[in-house]
Specification:
Helix content: 10-25%
Number of strands: 18
Shape: globular
Order of helices and strands: HHHEEEEEEEEHHHEEEEEEEEEE
Largest sheet: 16 strands, mixed
Structural class: alpha+beta
C-alpha cells in the first residue's frame, strides 16, 4: 500500500529540515550569514518539534466570506465535482462553518455554508465532506436543488480538499508548515531568512522566504521568534505583486503551547483590488485527544451519483435507497435532473 503523499512528506521532514539548516545563504557579511543560518536552524527545529508534538486535532470554525460584485471565486461544479468560477452580480457575504480533523495519517473535512450560484444570481447552501482513511479518499458534495455528488478513490493519497483547501491554510501552517510548503511544490532547500527582525501585529518576527517551482512565484512567512516561530503571516507573491495575504492569531494551549484562535485572509486581483476576503473564528478545538473512527467515514445518501476510481479504472453508479448500487454509463454521471437548466 502506498503511503499518503502528504504524510510521506511529513515523515521525511527531518531530512528536509536538516537540508534547510545546512543551506548556505549569500549575504554580503559573514557574520550576518551566520546569524541567518542560526535563525533558520531555530525556525526549522521549532516547526519540527510542533509537528512531532501534535498527534491529533480537531478544529470547529465559523467563517464569513465576502465577495465584491464582479469578483471571481471557485466552487465545486455540480456536474462533474470539479471547480468552476462564480461571478456575483452584487456584493455577497457568505457565512459558513467547517470542521477539520486529523489523527495520524487520517484526515477529515466537513463544511456547510452559503456559496454563490450564478445561475440563480443568489447564494445557496452547500455541504461538503471529504475524508481519507489511509486507503480510500472519499468526497461528497450536497446542495439543493441538485442531487449529491460523490467520489471514491483508492490509492493512499488524500484529495486536494484535505491538503490545499484555503479554509485549512492557517491550521496546516500551525501544525506543519513544511507539509504545506511541499504541497505548494516549493524547493525547501532554497528557503532563506530574508530579514531577522520584522514587526508583525506587535511581535518581532523572522521573515522566511522561498520560491515556488516557478521563479515568478514567491512565498513569505513571518514567524514569531518569541512564540516558537509560529507563522503569523503568510504572503504569496507573483513577480512582486501580492496575490494572497493571510494573518493568524493564537492563544495559549496547555497541551502543545499554542493553538490557532482566529485568522483572516485576502485574495487580490491583477489590479491589486481585493477579489475575496474571509474571516475565521475557532469555536472549539481539541488537541491530542482520541477521535472516533466515524469522523473519517462518509456514507453516501440515497440518490448520490458516485464515481469510483481504483488503479486507473473508473466506475459510475447511483446509490439506491437500500444502499445498493445502480451502475450507470459515464455520460449520466452528474447529469442535471430533467427540466433543470
Amino acid at each position: 500500500m502506498r503511503q499518503s503523499t502528504v504524510f510521506v512528506a511529513l515523515r521525511s521532514a527531518p531530512i528536509a529540515l536538516l537540508g534547510l539548516a545546512c543551506f548556505l545563504l549569500a549575504p554580503a557579511d559573514r557574520s550576518a550569514r551566520g546569524a541567518d543560518d542560526a535563525a533558520l536552524k531555530q525556525v526549522s527545529a521549532a516547526w519540527q518539534k510542533r509537528h512531532e508534538g501534535v498527534k491529533s486535532f480537531q478544529y470547529e470554525c465559523a467563517l464569513v466570506c465576502s465577495l465584491p460584485k464582479g469578483s471571481r471565486t471557485s466552487i465545486a461544479d455540480r456536474g462533474n465535482a470539479k471547480s468552476h468560477e462564480e461571478v456575483p452580480n452584487k456584493d455577497a457575504v457568505l457565512p459558513g462553518r467547517f470542521t477539520f480533523s486529523l489523527c495520524g495519517e487520517k484526515i477529515a473535512y466537513s463544511e456547510e455554508g452559503e456559496q454563490w450560484d450564478d445561475i440563480s444570481n443568489s447564494s445557496r447552501i452547500m455541504k461538503i465532506r471529504a475524508s481519507f482513511d489511509t486507503v480510500y479518499d472519499r468526497h461528497l458534495i450536497e446542495g439543493a436543488p441538485y442531487f449529491p455528488l460523490g467520489e471514491i478513490t483508492r490509492g493512499g493519497k488524500p484529495c486536494d480538499t484535505l491538503t490545499i483547501h484555503n479554509n485549512e491554510m492557517a491550521l496546516w501552517l500551525w501544525f506543519s508548515p513544511v507539509a504545506r510548503l511541499q504541497r505548494f511544490r516549493c524547493p525547501l532547500e532554497k528557503m532563506t531568512v530574508s530579514q531577522l527582525h520584522v514587526s508583525r501585529d506587535g511581535h518581532d518576527c523572522v521573515e522566511v522566504s522561498l520560491p515556488q517551482s516557478s521563479l515568478a512565484w514567491k512565498i513569505l512567512i513571518y514567524a514569531d521568534a518569541a512564540r516558537d516561530y509560529l507563522p503569523l503571516q503568510f504572503v504569496h507573491q507573483n513577480n512582486g505583486r501580492v496575490t494572497y495575504d493571510l494573518s493568524i492569531q493564537y492563544v495559549r494551549d496547555e497541551t502543545v503551547g499554542w493553538r490557532v484562535s482566529a485568522w483572516s485572509d485576502k485574495f487580490f486581483s491583477t489590479s491589486g483590488a481585493v477579489a475575496r476576503s474571509s474571516c475565521y473564528d475557532v469555536k472549539r478545538c481539541s488537541i491530542n485527544k482520541p477521535l472516533d473512527d466515524g469522523v473519517f467515514a462518509i456514507e453516501f445518501p440515497n440518490g448520490t451519483h458516485v464515481i469510483e476510481k481504483d488503479r486507473g479504472a473508473k466506475t459510475f453508479f447511483i446509490v439506491l435507497a437500500d444502499g445498493k448500487r445502480q451502475y450507470i454509463p459515464e455520460r449520466e454521471y452528474g447529469a442535471l435532473p430533467r427540466g433543470t437548466k
